[in-house]
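Weekly sync notes, structure subgroup
Attendees: PM, AL, DS (notes)

Item 1: joint prediction request from the bench team. They want all four components modeled as one assembly rather than separately. Inputs as received:
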Amino acid sequence: MAQLAARNGRTRTVTTLEEVASRAGVSRATVSRVVNGSPKVSPDVRRDVEAAIAALGYVPNRAARSLVTRRSGSIGVVISEPAGRLFSDPFFPRLLRGISTALSARDLQLVLLMPASPADTERTADYLAAGHVDGALLASLHGDDPLPDRMVRAGIPFVVGGRPLRDMGTSLVDVDNRGGARSAVAHLIARGCRRVATIAGPADMGAGVDRLNGYRDALGDANRAVEDRLIETADFTHEGGAAAMGRLLKTSPDVDGVFAASDLMAAGALAVLDAAGRRVPDDVALVGYDDSPIASTVRPQLTSVRQPIEEMGHEMARLLVAAVEGDDPIQRRVILATELIRRASSGGRRQP
Amino acid sequence: MAQLAARNGRTRTVTTLEEVASRAGVSRATVSRVVNGSPKVSPDVRRDVEAAIAALGYVPNRAARSLVTRRSGSIGVVISEPAGRLFSDPFFPRLLRGISTALSARDLQLVLLMPASPADTERTADYLAAGHVDGALLASLHGDDPLPDRMVRAGIPFVVGGRPLRDMGTSLVDVDNRGGARSAVAHLIARGCRRVATIAGPADMGAGVDRLNGYRDALGDANRAVEDRLIETADFTHEGGAAAMGRLLKTSPDVDGVFAASDLMAAGALAVLDAAGRRVPDDVALVGYDDSPIASTVRPQLTSVRQPIEEMGHEMARLLVAAVEGDDPIQRRVILATELIRRASSGGRRQP
DNA sequence: ATTGAGCGTGAGAGCGCTCTCACAATCCGT
DNA sequence: ACGGATTGTGAGAGCGCTCTCACGCTCAAT
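Output from the run, pasted for the record:
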């Protein structure tokens, strides 16, 4: 066995195919076949080889394998989020968990990339384009992100999570933001709200735009006009939501229902309503989005739209693996359904 | 240039050292020296080679390099957290961000591993022990995690983040949980609280134990006795904190100060105090821990202990890189300072 | 002039694996 | 019993890189 002198004086032993082969009395090629599950190995030989592998604790060397197969066995996951949502919302841990379980089932490594600056993004793009990974998952792209273009040019398969504003027709997994928002607003209308306002997300993010459209859809469904004065835009944060609610109370004191495009904004709105002496849900019914932990932390607890985030990660990984392994060049788009979670802030369950 | 037929019909070109060498009119070895920054290359040759590299867009093949250097160029980061804290606290995104920036500056890949079950943990251990990474970072180990043992046996360098309960004397980075808790409780005492209770974290986690000890320290500093009835244990969650506060109000209605070992528990306690008609901070002053987003979301905002989490990630990476690259077998332990953030829940800034 | 050190460069081996191809052994149908 | 298909196995090339070693050159010291 090769003695690999570790840098700290300890010694690590490494077993090679060759050694397994000689112990089992077969050739390297045969051991390779056993390791890779080829069917063309007789049962007795297979048994002997497996015994030798177990006895020696053999583990294939990934680098050597990659060198010849031209596959790295790893997938890049890019999270290019400038701290804001990254640090206030458990979205990314959940997404990563979903991706991780799907990839490890395929014995693929998850290489995490978190560019923190435009220069970083450039380096990330270089890294991915250099072919160091077999494919990439791009989460929460912002408007002008150069990554998709670079990937296309480099010919690296990738899947985008969350619809980017500038949709390029690439493979995509998203949650049904529009449908979720629509059901949230429909719920407020069904509950009896006459003036339903919305605190929309940023207009430069797919989720922001889609949820606003869902709001419009629901009003249309109920044959109501969309009034500009009832639409305020914020940045998904607590402070932004509070400010937007303040503006709303000033311009439209008659609102009796608010759909906030994130729980954080809903919480901010809640604080402002509270301070203004408006009771929730009696005077103003409130619905958030994301069903984040904060939704069940504030009082009253927030009715909110739950998204299948882990499933989204799963699905992204599944699509990418299909693109990498299969000869399937088809662009696929998956939209996952959301679920409205009814809590006290909108008067709980729908009143008949 | 080698034509690499991508599986989707597109074609990718790959440049090798050999091609760069022939274009620059030198040998492979010389190009290798330029790429790796060896000083033994004459300026003119270096210039020619660099020009050829740029012209061909050459990028070294990591697999081939790994095969001979016996370094993978990647670091495993293990987050073995069973969903609870993972999804409610931005701890991990921040830690990952810190680790990521430190590693990418060294051109090391971050391979993320998120075992979701004991079987998964076993596979993760196998993976790491097989030497597929140059080292590992283990975040938030739980009591009986088999990882450290396996790593030691396999001779893979690693650094632990957050003191595990069963401390094995390995390299470690932690925040000063004990000191942070101590300063939080000292703050309550200085503010004039006479009966300071604590809602402690789980006794099977280092952070839980350390923060409880910090509570004891502060009482001792003030020459006060530690009363068991003033110590309730919970699981770091909102619900747990609420339940603990409920018990506390029943057994010790005279409490006028509470130190909760997490913001989530503090928020739960706040809701219960509210419901019980106790005003915060006037009747009961409250301090949390983590300075998570929720601390500034609830009303009144929570005084809390802020931890330098990104720095923790940085430091972990730094230590590991030193262990991997240097011939430094020394076990190092770094404890990072915390900071008390004063807000309304404890009456704001210290009253003179 | 002669030696030796020093420096830049090239030749070539080899890292551990996969995969093609050739070959030997077995099987079938006639 | 015989040719041809089928099956399991081994030999060997080669993936792209690093690294050791030898070689030729220059230059200072003798």
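Discussion: Residues 14, 16-18, 28-29, 32, 36, 60-61, 63-69 of chain A lie near DNA strand C (CB under 10 Å from a C1').
Action: AL to compare against the crosslinking data before next sync.
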